[in-house]
UniProtKB/TrEMBL annotation:
Gene3D superfamilies (UniProt xref): 3.40.50.2300
Name this protein carries in UniProt: Receptor ligand binding region domain-containing protein
Lipid bilayer topology: Multi-pass membrane protein
GO cellular component: plasma membrane
GO molecular-function term, one example from the UniProt record: G protein-coupled receptor activity
Keywords of this entry: Cell membrane, G-protein coupled receptor, Glycoprotein, Membrane, Receptor, Signal, Transducer, Transmembrane, Transmembrane helix
Subcellular location: Cell membrane
Database matches in PANTHER family: C-FAMILY ODORANT RECEPTOR OLFCD2-RELATED, CALCIUM-SENSING RECEPTOR-RELATED
SUPFAM superfamilies: Periplasmic binding protein-like I (SSF53822)
Entry superkingdom: Eukaryota
Protein species of origin: Crenichthys baileyi (White River springfish)
TM helices/strands, residue ranges: 12-32
Length: 378
């Protein structure tokens, strides 16, 4: 029997407690905006009036959550369990279905989900935190996809009921008062712009882009992880510490990678570090683009490569490099990928160093997860 060891990050507990204080201080959050105009009975775009009753109907097919539980208040959750989005080409004769996540399995994302559920259950079972109030959750897999994250953001702000009558004083399900997520900066930016319009807080456990610190653009965004500005400075000082003054740099072609690399290059310039090349790419780029980036690394004279990339991009690049491994390189990584155990199978990455987020074991969490795994396998 294989024994699983779970190293759980405490940010979810902090995140949930922060959300609870937001709920208590802010009160109820109105997530459904309605506007009525005097007119005869009509039915347009999912809105209809029958006599004096005003009814709102959600259009489209709702996306099913990966985990859900009803409660008086609902905490939304968005992160990634899988790395790719399965798309279907439609001929416009059938109703499109919600996009499905596919690809390799992200164990870190699943641990985030299970830890969030564990935190909510701990709050519900406590006699001191929110006594008499039961929290529920709606947790979604975003596939690290902006379109999916946007879909989820609208679904959370619309509420959980497929039909809502204005004359009704209460909803059939709990109200979404806040959300945790996403694990990526780019999806979090899109979600925050939507949810911020409805004053719904979005608290991220892993979105590090310094751009999200702008309260003018993201007034309701909060996070329990430092901004990338600190990481960029640390990476530059790390390179300087070892006396590496001639390096190569690659980054994800996303808000996370672009902003992070820009901050790193600025810090590297101050430290007197010279950069031979800077390449950007995204996991969904044509293979020819990934091959070109890999060839640049193989042909370069810089023996040190700083990679400010998300896990999805790094996985695609390393798979391409493994077809024709480059000469020995010293890899320096950002927090998104440098501690991922799945990437350690690439031998030419041995000795990689970088910045990591502090972890700790939360009492009771590992036992809870192992018990659930045993019950599912029995």
């Amino acid at each position: 029997m294989e024994m699983w060891t779970f190293l759980i990050e405490p940010r979810f507990i902090i995140t949930l407690l922060e959300l609870m204080s937001l709920v208590l201080l802010g009160g109820f959050v109105n997530v459904l905006k309605q506007r009525t105009e005097p007119a005869e009975a009509f039915t347009v775009a999912g809105v209809s009036t029958e006599a004096s009753s005003f009814k709102c109907t959600l259009l489209g097919t709702p996306r099913m959550p990966a985990f859900s539980k009803d409660g008086i208040f609902i905490i939304g959750g968005v992160s990634s369990i899988r790395y790719q989005l399965y798309t279907v080409v439609y001929n416009y004769t059938t109703k499109p279905e919600p996009p499905r996540c596919t690809g390799s399995f992200n164990a870190r994302g699943l641990r985030f989900f299970r830890t969030m559920i564990f935190a909510i259950e701990q709050i519900n079972n406590s006699t001191e935190l929110l006594p008499g109030i039961k929290l529920g959750y709606q947790i979604y897999d975003s596939c690290i996809s902006v379109p999916v994250s946007v879909h989820v953001a609208f679904q959370l702000t619309n509420g959980q009921d497929p039909v809502f009558y204005k004359a009704s004083n209460c909803s059939q399900s709990g109200v979404v008062v806040a959300a945790v997520g996403d694990s990526g900066s780019t999806p979090s930016i899109s979600m925050s712009r939507i949810m911020g319009s409805f004053n719904i807080p979005l608290v991220s456990h892993f979105s590090t882009c310094s751009c999200l610190s702008d309260k003018q653009q993201f007034p309701t965004f909060l996070r329990t992880i430092p901004s990338d500005q600190f990481q960029a400075d640390a990476l530059a000082k790390l390179v300087k510490h070892f006396g590496w003054t001639w390096i190569g740099a690659i980054h994800s072609d996303s808000e996370y990678g672009n902003n992070g690399m820009a901050s790193f290059l600025e810090a590297a310039l101050k430290e007197g570090i010279c950069v031979e090349y800077t390449e950007s790419f995204f996991r969904s780029n044509p293979r020819s683009k990934i091959q070109r980036v890999a060839d640049v690394i193989r042909r370069s004279t810089a023996m040190v490569v700083v990679a400010f990339t998300a896990i999805g991009e790094m996985k695609v690049l390393l798979e391409e490099l493994s077809r024709d491994p480059p000469p020995p390189r010293q890899w320096i990584g950002s927090e998104a990928w440098v501690t991922d155990p799945n990437l350690m199978s690439f031998s030419f990455c041995a000795g990689a160093i970088g910045v990591a987020i502090q972890q700790s074991v939360i009492p009771g969490t590992g036992v809870s997860l192992l018990c659930e795994l045993s019950s599912r396998n029995s």
